[in-house]
Design brief:
- Helix content is 36%, strand content 19%.
- Strand 1 and strand 2 form a beta hairpin.
- The longest helix is centred in the N-terminal third of the chain and has 19 residues.
Length: 284
């Protein structure tokens, strides 16, 4: 693969928050734009390899770090509400839609917890994107804070909303069985290991928002499921996505894969299948 450099760019929201993102320029014929959003703990730096491959295939790739995460150091681990996160993504996508002027598809790639933001935005403002790529989306997690932790998070949200609590995903083995990747995750200085009480409580509120205001999505959806996932309940996730989808839904299951596809010994397979799906769904 040709080494594809990327640049760190920024986007200022209407509220004045500066969001950083990694921008990978396409090689060859321009086929479309993919905006990736990450999970609760990760950031765009975890996914540079796949982003470069998509760029090499002709896609403009933008990996947006969520406010308070990754490259965004202001208000680390915090957000005023999940609606703020939805609006951040909405404004970024609206700007990107103007940039491409509707000539090529704009796709959202949502990883793990980011799946909740992607579908939440579709409820809040539909049709901002032309398709969804969901990689082990976090609609139905198997890992939760303990009952005691939930009590103190709820208490903190009332009296100390910016108090930090551990995110219950600090064991690298939850993400991958790859020892090299586990070492990277353990030492990663940008990984989000703590979040505020109001952020964690709003993650639960977002769950209710998705279920109460569930909408039908007519845009094509690609769902990737990891058979060895220790974080996500796969059966419930598949049923959840089916309840949202009213258009083309493609489900790809990888029996031997763990939660973070990027860290698999042979990540090329899922990347190639995403590229094939894109070609089928968005033929010129």
């Amino acid at each position: 693969m040709v080494d594809i450099p990327f640049e760190i760019s920024s986007f200022i929201t209407s509220g004045g928050y500066k969001l950083h993102y990694r921008h990978f320029h396409p090689i060859g014929i321009f086929k479309g734009t993919i905006v990736f959003i990450h999970g609760i703990q990760s950031h765009g730096g975890w996914y540079v390899t796949s982003c470069k491959k998509f760029a090499q295939a002709g896609y403009r790739v933008l990996f947006l770090d969520r406010r308070g995460s990754g490259l965004n150091e202001v208000s680390r681990g915090d957000s005023p509400s999940f609606r703020t996160l939805l609006d951040d993504l909405k404004e970024f996508l609206q700007y990107q839609r103007k940039e491409i002027a509707g000539s090529t598809p704009l796709i959202i790639g949502a990883i793990s917890w980011g799946g909740k933001i992607a579908f939440g935005l579709e409820i809040r403002m539909a049709n901002l994107v032309d398709g969804f790529i969901l990689l082990a989306p976090g609609f139905c997690p198997k890992v939760h804070p303990t009952r005691k932790e939930r009590f103190f998070i709820a208490l903190g949200s009332l009296f100390a909303p910016r108090r930090l609590f551990n995110i219950p995903l600090n064991d690298p083995e939850l993400f991958t069985s790859n020892p090299v990747a586990q070492k990277f995750l353990k030492e990663d200085p940008l990984a989000l290991r703590k979040a505020t009480a109001r952020f964690l409580l709003d993650s639960v509120r977002l769950d209710f928002y998705l279920r109460i205001f569930r909408t039908k999505i007519s845009k094509p959806i690609l769902l990737l499921i990891a058979g060895q996932d220790k974080i996500i309940d796969n059966e419930k996730t598949i049923e959840f996505v089916k309840r949202f989808s009213s258009g083309s839904l493609t489900i790809k299951e990888y029996p031997e894969a763990h939660h973070t596809f990027e860290f698999e010994p042979q990540p090329q397979k899922h990347i190639e299948e995403i590229e094939e799906w894109l070609q089928v769904q968005f033929k010129k």
